[in-house]
Amino acid sequence: MDNCVKAHCMLNIKKIYKLVSITVSWLGIFIFIFLFPIQIALAAPQVNINVGASVVDVGFDIRDLTLFRANYYLQSDETKNKTEALKQQYEDEPVLDYINGIDASQEGDFKKAIGYFSDALKKDGNFAEAYVARGRVYSQWGDNHLKEAIRSYTEALEKPPKFAPDPSRFVEPLLGRAAVYRKLGKDKAALDDLNRVIEQNPDFYDAYLARADIYTKNNDTKDASPLGDRDLALKDLNTAIYLKPDYPAALLARGLIQAELEKDKEAISNFYEVIQSDEADAAAYYNDAYYYLGLIYLKLAQEKQAIQAFSSAVKPNEKGYDFKHYADAYYNRGLVYSKLENYAEAVEDFTKALNYINKEILPNPTKIDAYYYRGNANFELWNLQQSVADYTKVISLKPNFALAYYNRCISYRFQNNFDKAIQDCKKAILLDPKMDEANNTLWAIYILKEGLKDGYIHIEIHKPTLWEYINSLFWNLVVRIGGFFISQQVLQD
After folding, report:
1. Are 307 and 271 spatial neighbours (Cβ–Cβ below 8 Å)?
2. Phi, psi of 136 (to 5 degrees)
């Protein structure tokens, strides 16, 4: 009886042992195959959507339209009528030459305009407005003529104005010369001239805008220079807008600074005021206002509003004004579409951005990012060949970009091009040894290529820590022991 009990107990113990060993073995295999880290990151390339461009680059430009009007006393919408009135009021030849010079400059014939202004000055050397007009044309003609522009403006300071109602408030030579100093990078000289402008004519709102532009320039020195002082810039812009409430250039500039200071609500309000402006020159700033609105909405994760703003920014300007940010607007809209997983639209926008960028003479830092994110979007659309081409372009432009190698590795992996995938993965690890997903993916690709038995030993580039090495050996042992027990059970059965 006792022997039977013992035999029965032994039989139960064997069954329990067998059941436990099989369970542990299969559990070990399951954990190794599905949960062991080498399986991580096979599914898709790493995608990190970010804003890409700075929300605001406050180095805004004072447009020629603001500082270099056709005539400081003849606004563009009234020029024709007033020039006719001048012709009737002044019948002397210098004034007629001066008016003809204005007409030529408006037509873009700078050489002819210079000739008219020079003829006027030969006939009347005390003609300040003619010197100012000639300086303006020289400044517009190109960088080779900036010294002549300075000379003309300086000579204008020594002559009496012919048309100014109050000669003591005639500040156009100083304002024009300050603008040329800015082009030459002589900010201190420009600031001195603008201070004189405001002292002589405190109501001249353009001067406050121009001085605010100088204040926003970053100051790398440790002196008490006002350069880089956003508070002074905002104070001047507030004054300019107080003097001229519907002043789109100043409103845009104020919005830019407020956005830089992360006062998003105030910035958005200023940009909408630009868009709603009725000023004759407002259209020159519409595209910029929409573009910066898009950047703020993108930062605030308000994707719908961002897409609407960028879409308005890339529309052709209704009055033909130049817009410098077409590439950046398409690029950032592409980021929004990627974030919303609208990958076909994203690819289209990144392509448009690159079309603009590739036409530019100066290098554009967005170029690399545009190719990179287009590669990600193409991968999501399963355009593997195009994603490889995009990542290859990124690598040619930035050879030390580890993520580009890693993402191309993933594209190659899904093309079953394991050799190239392994090569790219190794390169990514060399560039960024701490990129865990690349280390794990490398082991996984080796397993896919060579099978479970040999794949785990390919770790010649990633030098494992002691814990990683023990962990690898442990799970390999689990698989081998589990396989042994399973095979024994199969043989016994």
Report:
1. no
2. -60, -45
| CB-based burial, 154-176: b 16+ in 10 Å, e otherwise | ebbbebebbbbeeeeebbbbbbb
| CA–CA distance, 72 with 133 (Å, rounded to integer) | 9
Tens-level pLDDT at each residue, the chain (493 residues): 455 544 445 445 555 555 555 555 555 545 444 444 333 333 334 433 333 333 334 333 333 323 333 333 333 344 444 555 555 555 567 888 888 888 888 888 999 999 999 998 999 999 998 999 999 999 988 889 999 999 999 999 999 888 888 888 889 899 899 989 988 989 899 999 999 999 999 998 989 998 998 888 755 434 445 556 888 999 999 999 999 999 999 999 999 999 988 899 999 999 999 999 999 888 889 999 999 999 999 999 999 999 999 999 999 887 888 888 999 999 999 999 999 999 999 999 999 999 999 887 777 888 999 999 999 999 999 999 999 999 999 999 999 999 999 999 999 988 989 899 999 999 999 999 888 888 878 877 877 776 544 444 444 444 445 555 555 555 555 545 544 444 444 335 4
Helix (H, G, I), strand (E, B) or coil at 238: helix
Core vs surface per residue 72-102: b (16+ CB within 10 A) or e: bbbeeeebeebbeebeeeeeeebbbbbbbbb
